[in-house]
C-alpha cells in the first residue's frame, strides 16, 4: 500500500475561476510513505493564503471523550468536531514537504485528554513529553529516551487517570492532572521498579500488572503513591505468581485479562504460553499451553492477544508467507491447543473496541468488524483501501480510506451497516469548478470515478453531489480533462519546469497587469537543488536466519526493496527462506558457496576456484527458488584481495565492497578479547546517520553464526530507515549505486 521509490513531488491540474480563486493538487509519491494527492484552494491575489481542502488520514486519534477526531499527515494535524461537523487545521506546514518523513506515534489517553510522545533529538534518542490535547501545552517527562518510529514508551490506565513510562531502565508512574497543575511528586517517589515498558500492562483502570524477571505483581492504581513511597517496607505490589519462563522486557511481551486470572506471554517472538493465575505468591502460574509457534505457510512477524468474556482467548498472528513473501494473518482460538478460526490476506493490525468485545481490521479494500467471543462477522465496509481507523465508542467507528474518512455506526440486530457516512475527503482524483456555480468546488472520488462531492467552504468538509446520471457523466468527462494552463482576465495559472530536482515541476502564476510577470506560488520549489540523495541497504545472510522475518516485515512496511547477499550455507539450510526473500521482490546476490575466509592461508585461490564456487551457489539457489542470482557478489566477511575480486570479474560478477561498515558482526566475545570494538544497535544507527553520504552502502547482518550481542542492528531497522528518510535520502538497490 506504499509507494515506489523513484517519483517526486508533482503539481497537477491548476484551474482558476473568474474571481481569481484557483485549485490545484499536489501528489507525493516518495519511498517510505503513503502516496496520495492533496487538494488546495488558493487566491491569485494573495497566494500566501493557500487552503488545504482534503485531509488524508495517515494517523487518527480520538480526543475529548469521543467528541473530536484528530487526523495527522505530512502536512500537519487537523481536528474534526463531531458536534459541529467541521474540520480545522491546528497546525500545518507552510511549504510543500519535499522529503518523505515517517509519521510519529502518539500514546493518547483513553479519554482523549492527554498524549505521550517523543520529540526526536538525534538519530536514536529523543525527549518524552506529556501533552494536554486541549491547550496543547507540553510537559517534559524524560530528557533522554530511546526514539522509535513505531512505539511510545508509555501506557495509560483505562480511564486516563494515570500512566506509566520508561526512563533509564526503570518504570515510573505519573498523574497527568498533577503534572499539569505542577504538583507532581518527585520522580524518586514514583518509581515502580526496573524494566522496560513491555514489563507492564493495565489489566483495567484499577490494576497494573508488572513483571520483574519471573515474578508477577498486581498493583492497585489507588495504592500507587503509597506502594512506591513505602516500597521498602510494604513492597511494590502483591505477588500473584511466578512465570516458569523468565521474562525479558527487551524481547518478550505479555497480556492479561481484566479479571487478572489469565496471562499470555510471547517469548523471543516464538514461544506462546498461556497461564492460569492461582493467586499464590510462591507458586508458579499454571501452564495451560506453552509451545513454539509454527506455521508451514509463513514466518511470524508479531502477535496480538485478546480475552473474551467467556474466558477464552483469541490469538492473532501476522506472518510473511514462505512461498510467496506476502503478508497474511492467522486467527486462532487459544486454549490447551491452537484452533484456527480465520486467515486474512494482507490485513492491517486489529483494534479492540473500548468494551473489549469487538475487533476491527482491514483487508483488500474492506474494513471488517468481528465479535470477539464467537468470531462472527458483524459487518464490512468496502469501496476503498483503508489506512487508519479508530473507535469513537463501542458502537461507532471512524474509517480513514484512500478517498474519504467515514463514520460507521452499529445498526439493527447488533450489526454494522454496509455503508458509512462521509465526513470529509482524504484525497480527490480530480477537482474542478462546478458548472453554473463558479465558486463551488466539485471533486471526483479517488476511489470511485463515478462519485462526486461538493465542498462546503464554511465547514471545510464535503457532501455527495446529488446529480442525475447525465450530469454525472458530464462531470466524469470534465474530470478527465487535464488542464495545465487556465486563465481569467487577470491571471494565468500553470505548471512549468523547475531547477529544484526534488520537485517534478512547479506551480506558477502570471499576472497580466503591468509588465505581465510570472512567479512561483511556492518560491522554495524553484530554488536550484540537487537530486535526491541515494542510499542502499545490504543484508548479509551467512548461515543464520534469526532476523530475516523482522527485516522483511520492516522493508515491506516502508515498501523498500533491498539487496541480499546469500551464502551457500544459508541457501542449503534455509531454501524456503531464500524463496521468501526473492518473492518479496528483493535482489538476491551471491556470498560464495562456502563460509570460509578466502584470504586465510591454506587456500589456493585462482580464477577456476572462484568461478566454480560462484557457479555452485547459482545452481543451489536456482534449485531452491527456481530463480537466478544477480551477478553481484562479495566474499564471506568481506574478506577478499585483488586476485579474488579479479577472478569474480572474469566470471561476470561485480564485486560489492561494504566491509568497513560491517560493524554489527562484532560480538561481546571479540570485544572482551580486545580484538574488536563493540557498539550496540542504537549507537550503530547514530554512527551511520552521522556518517551519511550520497551512494552509501550499509551492510546489515541477518543473523550471527557465533558469538553474542546485547542487541542486533536489524532490530533497529525501522529506526535506521526512518532516520535516513528524515535526512532526505531515497533507498535504492546496490546495482544502482555506482
From TrEMBL:
Using the record's annotation, list all stretches that form the NodB homology domain. 533-732
**Example of a GO cellular component annotation carried by this entry:** membrane
**PROSITE patterns attached to this UniProt entry:** NODB
A Gene Ontology biological process noted in the UniProt record is:
carbohydrate metabolic process
Q: Which GO terms describe its molecular function?
A: hydrolase activity, acting on carbon-nitrogen (but not peptide) bonds
Q: Name one Pfam family in it.
A: Polysacc_deac_1
Q: Which PANTHER family match?
A: GLYCOSYL TRANSFERASE-RELATED, POLYSACCHARIDE DEACETYLASE PDAB-RELATED
Q: What is this protein called?
A: Peptidoglycan/xylan/chitin deacetylase (PgdA/CDA1 family)
Say which species the protein is native to: Treponema ruminis
Amino acid at each position: 500500500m506504499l509507494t515506489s521509490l523513484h517519483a517526486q513531488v508533482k503539481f497537477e491540474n491548476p484551474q482558476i475561476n473568474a474571481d481569481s480563486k484557483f485549485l490545484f493538487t499536489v501528489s507525493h509519491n516518495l519511498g517510505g510513505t503513503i502516496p496520495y494527492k492533496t487538494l488546495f484552494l488558493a487566491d491569485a491575489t494573495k497566494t500566501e493564503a493557500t487552503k488545504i481542502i482534503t485531509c488524508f488520514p495517515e494517523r487518527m486519534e480520538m480526543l475529548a471523550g469521543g467528541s473530536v477526531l484528530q487526523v495527522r499527515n505530512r502536512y500537519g494535524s487537523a481536528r474534526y468536531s463531531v458536534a459541529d461537523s467541521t474540520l480545522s487545521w491546528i497546525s500545518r506546514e507552510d511549504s510543500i514537504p519535499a522529503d518523505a518523513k515517517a509519521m510519529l506515534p502518539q500514546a493518547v489517553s483513553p479519554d482523549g485528554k492527554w498524549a505521550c510522545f517523543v520529540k526526536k533529538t538525534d538519530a536514536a534518542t529523543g525527549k518524552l513529553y506529556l501533552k494536554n490535547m486541549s491547550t496543547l501545552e507540553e510537559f517534559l517527562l524524560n530528557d533522554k529516551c530511546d526514539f522509535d518510529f513505531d512505539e511510545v514508551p508509555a501506557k495509560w490506565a483505562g480511564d486516563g487517570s494515570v500512566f506509566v513510562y520508561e526512563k533509564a531502565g526503570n518504570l515510573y508512574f505519573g498523574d497527568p492532572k498533577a503534572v499539569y497543575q505542577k504538583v507532581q511528586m518527585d520522580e524518586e517517589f514514583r518509581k515502580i521498579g526496573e524494566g522496560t515498558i513491555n514489563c507492564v500492562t493495565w489489566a483495567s483502570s484499577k490494576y497494573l500488572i508488572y513483571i520483574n524477571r519471573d515474578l508477577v505483581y498486581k498493583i492497585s492504581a489507588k495504592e500507587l503513591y503509597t506502594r512506591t513511597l513505602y516500597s521498602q517496607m510494604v513492597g511494590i505490589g502483591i505477588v500473584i505468581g511466578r512465570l516458569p519462563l523468565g521474562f525479558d522486557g527487551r524481547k518478550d511481551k505479555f497480556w492479561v485479562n481484566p479479571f487478572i486470572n489469565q496471562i499470555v506471554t510471547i517469548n523471543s517472538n516464538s514461544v506462546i504460553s498461556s497461564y492460569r493465575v492461582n493467586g499464590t505468591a510462591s507458586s508458579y502460574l499454571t501452564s495451560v499451553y506453552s509451545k513454539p509457534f509454527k506455521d508451514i505457510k509463513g514466518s511470524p512477524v508479531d502477535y496480538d492477544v485478546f480475552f473474551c468474556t467467556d474466558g477464552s482467548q483469541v490469538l492473532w498472528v501476522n506472518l510473511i508467507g514462505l512461498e510467496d513473501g506476502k503478508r497474511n494473518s492467522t486467527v486462532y482460538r487459544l486454549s490447551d491447543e491452537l484452533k484456527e478460526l480465520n486467515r486474512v490476506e494482507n490485513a492491517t493490525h486489529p483494534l479492540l473496541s473500548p468494551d473489549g468485545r469487538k475487533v476491527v481490521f482491514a483487508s483488500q479494500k474492506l474494513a471488517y468488524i468481528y465479535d470477539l467471543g464467537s468470531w462472527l462477522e458483524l459487518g464490512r465496509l468496502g469501496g476503498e483501501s483503508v489506512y487508519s481507523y479508530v473507535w469513537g465508542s463501542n458502537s461507532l467507528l471512524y474509517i480513514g480510506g484512500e478517498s474519504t474518512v467515514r463514520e460507521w455506526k452499529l445498526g439493527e440486530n447488533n450489526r454494522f451497516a454496509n455503508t458509512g457516512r462521509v465526513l470529509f475527503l482524504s484525497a480527490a482524483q480530480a477537482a474542478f469548478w462546478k458548472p453554473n456555480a463558479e465558486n463551488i468546488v466539485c471533486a471526483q472520488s479517488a476511489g470511485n470515478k463515478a462519485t462526486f462531492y461538493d465542498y462546503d467552504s464554511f465547514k471545510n468538509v464535503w457532501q455527495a453531489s446529488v446529480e442525475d446520471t447525465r450530469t454525472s457523466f458530464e462531470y466524469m468527462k470534465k474530470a478527465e480533462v487535464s488542464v495545465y494552463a487556465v486563465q481569467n482576465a487577470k491571471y494565468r495559472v500553470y505548471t512549468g519546469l523547475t531547477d529544484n530536482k526534488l520537485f517534478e515541476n512547479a506551480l506558477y502564476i502570471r499576472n497580466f497587469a503591468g509588465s505581465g510577470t510570472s512567479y512561483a506560488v511556492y518560491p522554495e520549489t524553484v530554488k536550484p537543488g540537487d537530486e535526491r540523495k541515494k542510499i542502499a541497504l545490504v543484508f548479509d545472510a551467512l548461515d543464520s536466519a534469526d532476523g530475516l522475518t523482522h527485516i522483511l516485515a520492516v522493508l515491506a512496511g516502508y515498501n523498500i526493496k533491498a539487496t541480499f547477499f546469500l551464502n551457500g550455507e544459508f541457501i542449503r539450510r534455509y531454501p524456503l527462506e531464500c524463496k521468501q526473500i526473492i518473492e518479496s521482490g528483493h535482489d538476491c546476490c551471491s556470498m560464495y558457496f562456502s563460509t570460509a575466509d578466502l584470504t586465510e592461508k591454506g587456500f589456493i585461490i585462482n580464477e577456476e576456484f572462484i568461478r566454480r564456487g560462484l557457479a555452485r551457489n547459482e545452481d543451489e539457489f536456482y534449485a531452491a527458488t527456481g530463480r537466478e542470482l544477480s551477478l553481484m557478489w562479495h566474499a564471506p566477511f568481506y574478506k577478499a584481495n585483488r586476485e579474488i575480486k579479479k577472478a569474480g570479474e572474469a566470471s561476470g560478477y561485480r564485486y560489492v565492497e561494504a566491509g568497513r561498515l560491517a560493524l554489527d558482526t562484532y560480538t561481546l566475545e571479540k570485544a572482551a578479547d580486545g580484538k574488536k570494538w563493540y557498539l550496540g544497535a542504537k549507537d550503530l544507527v547514530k554512527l551511520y546517520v552521522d556518517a551519511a553520504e550520497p551512494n552509501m552502502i550499509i551492510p546489515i547482518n541477518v543473523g550471527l553464526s557465533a558469538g553474542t550481542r546485547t542487541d542486533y542492528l536489524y532490530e533497529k531497522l525501522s529506526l535506521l530507515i526512518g532516520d535516513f528518510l528524515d535526512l532526505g535520502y531515497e533507498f535504492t538497490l546496490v546495482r544502482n549505486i555506482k
